[in-house]
UniProtKB/TrEMBL annotation:
Protein name, UniProt field: HM13 protein
Statement: the UniProt record of this protein carries the keyword DNA damage: no
InterPro entries, per the entry: Peptidase_A22B_SPP, Preselin/SPP
Disordered: region residues: 347-374
The keyword Ubl conjugation belongs to this UniProt entry's keyword annotation: no
Recorded topology in the membrane: Multi-pass membrane protein
Family annotation (Pfam families): Peptidase_A22B
Species: Symbiodinium pilosum
GO CC annotations, alphabetized: cytoplasmic side of endoplasmic reticulum membrane; lumenal side of endoplasmic reticulum membrane
Chain intervals with Basic and acidic residues compositional bias: 348-374
Amino acid sequence: MLSSPQKPDKEWLAKSATAAKNLPGTRFGWFQSHAHLVLLPAMCVMLASKQSLWLFTEDASSRTATPVLQREDAYWFPVLGSGVLFGLFAILKFLGNDWLKQAIAALMVSTCAFGLASNIDAFAQLVRNKRGAPVYLRLPSLALEIALLDLLGMVVASVLAVTYVWTKNWIANNLLGFSFCLLGIRSVNLSSYSTGVVLLSGLFLYDVFWVFFSQPVFGSNVMVSVAKGVEAPNKLMLPRDFGGCGDLQFNMLGLGDIAVPGLFLAFLAKWDAVKMADVSSKSFVYLNSAVVAYMISLATTVMVMMVFQHPQPALLYICPFVLIASLAVAIARGELPDLVAFSLPEDSEAKGDNEEHNRNEPKVSEDDKSGVHE
């Protein structure tokens, strides 16, 4: 969901905005704030998709097993998401003690901090593949051996989590939120294109209902109430202006609006790898097209929000844009039947039947792998 906080008095805000125009460095502030809202999430999904592809194309005997989401599971996502969202709403509404809010926030911060440490560890693994064996810190008295880069990741994640808890700084919030999205996108694979269609379609309806229709049913906007009730890095906060009173005002984008389409784009990246391995493609044409569509959908969300001055369910625009983009590319290239038929193997297959897995997984050359990190 994309939203912005309530504005101060319109007349007073207009006067302050007029005065602000004379300040240096504010001429392009409006454009910059909304450009960040489009570019930063797009950068996140692109990076996460390439990272997911890299991990998937590692040797099956050495890589970490990744759950594969089947189409039957995708049907349940909107139901489970609705249950969790309404559960949080009910807890905050009827048992909204400060300690309970702090406990929920602590759980979310811990999860995001784990994501940050895990992302640093993933980067460390990449460095090890390029540079050789890791450097270890050995503590004989404790019979403990820790890779220095792993230790660095834990320290950085802990410091950032503590910084966020004490200051609620928006930069710390965004770093933790981005880390959570990167972790989520690379930790789950979609089994097939149809699974992605089911997932995006179901969460399209989920987002529309909880943003537009929850207030008449439950007396308040459930999604907005949960977002405001828990001070946790469950959204991106992108500075918009000073609101005329010296306090930063933010546009906010829910992490689900990054992670959910990110799963679909990561699947398209794997399909691109298959086509490049078959020498029928020379670039990430599906992924790049979907990222452009994702950026256009975010820009559309911003424009609609500004026109109607109401929070918008970003997935209302994201889901059809990325689906139409992928379909258009597949139809234009005559690859739609192959795309629909393509599927990723189960984890059990990857572990128990390496020969069959090797026939199905994308075989990416070293040159293609280097392109993953460009």
